[in-house]
Amino acid sequence: MLLRSVPRLFSGRVPRLLAGLLVCLLAPLLAGCSSTDTAGETARGTDSAAAPAPSWAAGMDTVREPELPAEARRTLALIDTGGPFPYAEDGSVFGNFERELPRQERGHYHEYTVRTPGERDRGARRIVTGRDGEVYYTDDHYNSFRAVLR
User: Fold this and answer.
1) From 47, 86, 96, 105, which residue has the greatest number of CB atoms within 10 Å?
2) Do residues 31 and 114 lie in contact, with contact meaning Cβ atoms separated by under 8 Å?
3) Where is this region: Disordered (predicted)?
């Protein structure tokens, strides 16, 4: 008897209730899929659900290590193991003459070549590391850098 009265009790309301329920459930999911940050700018290689960038990367574009080109990830693996490196210049002091990275004393930064497929020379891609664990990536020969989030 009770089961027979349920359809009459909700007649006309069920479609609206289901639609409202779906909107309430889907809205937070769809909001989390946005590709813009809180300032409305498109994020370059960042994940809004990720932990905040370290203080040394404040104000910089960032890139997660898995999103780097395969050659850059290979260079990072060589850096982690101490080489051997393919180029004599790898590991040399990076002067930061362009002032694109935070100012530090000479010797704080070191640079490593990231191979560029099809290039006959070292190409424009580099990884620059800092004494305090900072890692930066450039693909335009020091004109811009992104902090690498590992």
Assistant:
1) 96
2) no
3) 36-55
